[in-house]
């Protein structure tokens, strides 16, 4: 019997986490100090569960819905929970206050996990009586479609909190990875950033249009990366595996790395030029429609993957 | 009426190109000086066409097969072709000889395109009488499943050769992109290299296991990248598009880029450690079986994408 999961914050991420846990049969106590936020969350969750049902990704949306309790009182919301997924604002001082408040109301062994995408847990938990049960569990948006969760312990985090978070994520059908050090950007955004930085440099240098850079990934690299990682990809791309691959292509990648400029990829002029090309491909007023398309494509892809033998 | 396409070299890439063009209804003259290579190619092409048929990716494999002519004589193979896809060895001197030989037998307006993954066309065509019809058309392996083709003109390449190559690739249902400068690694491998370099550094620094780095891409970044590029992804990930995204996350990526070490990601010790983890996940004797799995997954993914409304 899994104890209920508490979620602090009923914004976009908090609502998505509620779906993740409820879908996996776990009771959810969703807390937000604002009653209106909880009401909006209830509607948004119902809509998302309906979308998932229509895409064949959840069998019984009503049952999942019934597992979510909405509570604007922190103490009663967090009573009896074994794990809290904090989805508060991305601000160190605010988080420090939130964790003090949480520590005052949860059981001594309750794990406190933050959804933060960029702030190390040590920065907002070092003032607590029991910082050993705190860590980061960073999702990708929306976590009910993209399963990766970065579990990032602080130096003070105990092994038990790490182990139970990894286990809970597996139970919730997510894919947790363990990030052993509190590096800036964790792992997913460092990998994304490396590719974006290079793409922006190629664009700024006039090597390729924005559209062609997107095509390179979606009709080239991204196909295999959607079911294999980059290491498995290169391991299978040389007759004798990764070392063989490194001998063949390492020199090229090393040269590319060395001769790469030190100019800032995120310059205002570069972003303005990128924006101009993007707005030609997609006018600003159609961004929302295209986001809905993206979500449908993502659901269709997940349904496709689930239809295959799980290997 | 498209003139036949000549393919020089009946190895892995030459055979795959033959499938691409024949599948699109274009006659193919496949040349290799070695008769045994042509015989092996015929068998391999028949097998691949059969696999594609079983995956629902080609309707009439016999018809495609019948469009491919095998010819070990260069002059008769290249008679009447409007375009040559060169798939010779990755060696500058060898390619220079090949292009001299080709120039002697093809029509004056025949485009000569190289499949090279790393050598700029200017390096093996500057001695020709008509270098203006030469360029690189670099495929991803196998091109009949992964449609991206990098079209990379040399400074001497004429606009007509670029335009007709782009048009031929579209006709062959590939996705050509235009690379405006002969940069090392072209575009696809520069993007792949940027991500690999960062992944290897995170692995070497003990931040993450090889398996968890692969999971980060296949259960995280790679899902959206398989149907959207990185720029479209960030454009849709902030309320007001790419500039808004840059204001929010640019500082993080800029910092990651600046504090990134200058150590060589492709060190022997790193590759040996990576190999050890990979061989625990997949013993060397199962590499072939896993490659077959990869090809099945790729075919299933392409069939899934084709089943969706083309948007």
UniProtKB/TrEMBL annotation, chains A, B:
Which residue numbers delimit the 3-hydroxyacyl-CoA dehydrogenase C-terminal domain? 185-244
**What Gene3D superfamilies does the annotation carry?**
N-(1-d-carboxylethyl)-l-norvaline Dehydrogenase, domain 2, NAD(P)-binding Rossmann-like Domain
Pinpoint the 3-hydroxyacyl-CoA dehydrogenase NAD binding domain residues.
Answer: 5-181
UniProt key word Cell membrane? no
Give UniProt keywords alphabetically: Oxidoreductase
Q: Does the keyword Oxidoreductase apply?
A: yes
What's the family?
A: Belongs to the 3-hydroxyacyl-CoA dehydrogenase family.
Q: What is this protein called?
A: 3-hydroxyacyl-CoA dehydrogenase
Taxonomic source organism: Halomonas litopenaei
């Amino acid at each position: 019997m899994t104890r209920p999961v508490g979620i602090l914050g009923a914004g976009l991420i908090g609502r998505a986490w509620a779906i993740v846990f409820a879908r996996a049969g776990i009771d959810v106590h969703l807390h937000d100090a604002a009653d209106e936020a909880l009401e909006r969350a209830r509607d948004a969750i119902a809509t998302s569960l309906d979308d998932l049902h229509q895409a064949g990704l959840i069998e019984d949306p009503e049952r999942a819905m019934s597992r979510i309790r909405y509570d604007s009182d922190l103490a009663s919301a967090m009573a009896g929970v074994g794990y809290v997924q904090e989805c508060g604002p991305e601000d160190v001082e605010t988080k420090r206050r939130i964790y003090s408040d949480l520590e005052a109301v949860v059981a001594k062994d309750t794990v406190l996990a933050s959804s933060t995408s960029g702030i190390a847990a040590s920065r907002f938990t070092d003032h607590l009586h029991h910082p050993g049960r705190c860590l980061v569990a960073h999702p990708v948006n929306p976590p009910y479609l993209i399963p990766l969760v970065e579990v990032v312990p602080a130096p003070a985090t105990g092994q038990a909190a790490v182990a139970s978070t990894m286990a809970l994520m597996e139970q919730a059908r997510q894919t947790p990875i363990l990030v052993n050090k509190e590096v800036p950007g964790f792992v997913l955004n460092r990998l994304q950033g490396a590719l974006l930085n290079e793409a922006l440099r190629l664009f700024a240098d006039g090597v390729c249009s924005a559209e062609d850079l997107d095509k390179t990934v979606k009709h080239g690299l991204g196909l295999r990366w959607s079911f294999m990682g980059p290491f498995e990809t290169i391991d299978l791309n040389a007759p004798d595996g990764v070392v063989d691959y490194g001998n063949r292509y390492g020199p090229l990648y090393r040269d590319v790395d060395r001769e790469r400029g030190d100019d800032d990829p995120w310059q205002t002029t570069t972003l303005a030029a990128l924006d101009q090309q993007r707005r030609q491909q997609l006018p600003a007023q159609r961004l929302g429609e295209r986001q809905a398309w993206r979500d449908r494509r993502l659901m269709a892809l997940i349904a496709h993957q689930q239809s295959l033998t799980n290997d």
